[in-house]
Amino acid sequence: MQRQSTRSPRARAVGLGSAKDGVEHWWAERVSAVALVPLTLWFVASIIAHTGSDYDMFITWLRAPLATIPMILLLIALFRHAALGLCVVIEDYVHSGAKFAAVIAVRLGCVALASAGIVATLRVALSG
Amino acid sequence: MVPHSPTNRPRPLSPNIQIYRPQLTSVLSIVNRITGIILSFCAVVLVIWLVATATGPQAYAAVQGAIASGVGRIVLFGCTFAFFLHLCGGIRHLVWDTVHGFELRSIYASGWTVVATSVVLTLAAWGASLLIAG
Fold first, then answer.
1. Can you give the pLDDT of all 128 residues of chain A as single tens digits?
2. A9-126 domain in CATH 3.40.50.300?
3. What one-character DSSP code corresponds to residue B100?
4. For the domain with range B24-133, which CATH number is right: 1.20.1300.10, 1.10.10.2840, 3.60.15.10, 3.40.50.300?
5. CB contact, 8 Å: A6 with chain B?
6. Could you say which DSSP state residue A50 is in?
7. CA-nearest residue of chain A to B49?
8. CA B68, B126, B52: angle at the middle one, nearest 5?
9. What distance in Å separates the CA atoms of residue A99 and residue A82, rounded to the nearest whole number?
């Protein structure tokens, strides 16, 4: 005799993909992308403008609030976007048990790297 | 009868990506992914660079020296191209998200625009950098 499942179709679907947080993921990827358009262009333009600058010139630039603030916003948006994108890549190509570990490593790594970048930026901005 | 019982019968698979001849559309799709992965590594370098800046002039000089070396410059040039490809490709995706530009003509037009714009912006960025460096 076959055992009849008492679980509802929804209960079976929850935890199997789009029933989780697909919409939130999709929106976060788009919103971070929109934020990154001006932030990355500002960063690339600033780096180009500082070609040949020495340490002191670069520090002076980064200390100004008009550079400190966009740099911190860039780090937040960049690592949020990277975490979302890399998780999709892992979910698409890694099918073994390593998938879960890889997703966790990417998510934690991105938070750690963003934190390190923000702390470094603030140290430069608030020192001396 | 359980309608959704799992079976061990091998399921039919659609042909894999290698079967198809590469087209601009499929190439740009995978390029957007690859450049995204490359830019994630660039983000790690950005953090190393910022941490070195916060550490002091010597650490900064070491990182700056590595970036300004011959290999560093070639890698940086590649990363610049990857950045503009991902930026332009990303904007193309944002336009698609508004349900515009899905006709075959538009898809090819926007695809070639992404390629051409990325090449021009990469060369412009390096041209400007070399001009400022004198």
1. 556 677 777 777 666 655 567 788 899 999 999 999 999 999 999 999 998 889 999 999 999 999 999 999 999 999 999 999 999 999 888 888 899 999 999 999 999 999 999 999 999 999 86
2. no
3. -
4. 1.20.1300.10
5. no
6. T
7. A117
8. 35
9. 17
Min distance B108 CA to chain A CA atoms (Å): 23
In angstroms, the CA A99 to CA A105 distance is: 10
Task: Give the residue extent of every domain in chain A.
Answer: 9-126
Across the interface, do A82 and B40 touch by the CB < 8 Å criterion?
yes
Distance, in angstroms, between B65 CA and closest chain A CA? Answer: 12
Nearest-Cα residue of chain B relative to residue A106: B40
The alpha carbon of residue A117 is apart from the nearest alpha carbon of chain B, in Å, by 5
**A72 neighbourhood in chain B, CB within 8 Å:** none
Question: Distance (Å, rounded) from C-alpha B67 to C-alpha B55?
Answer: 17
Interface test with B, best of A25, A44, A50 (most B CBs within 10 A): A44
Phi-psi region of B50 (alpha: psi -120 to 50; beta: other; left: phi over 0): alpha
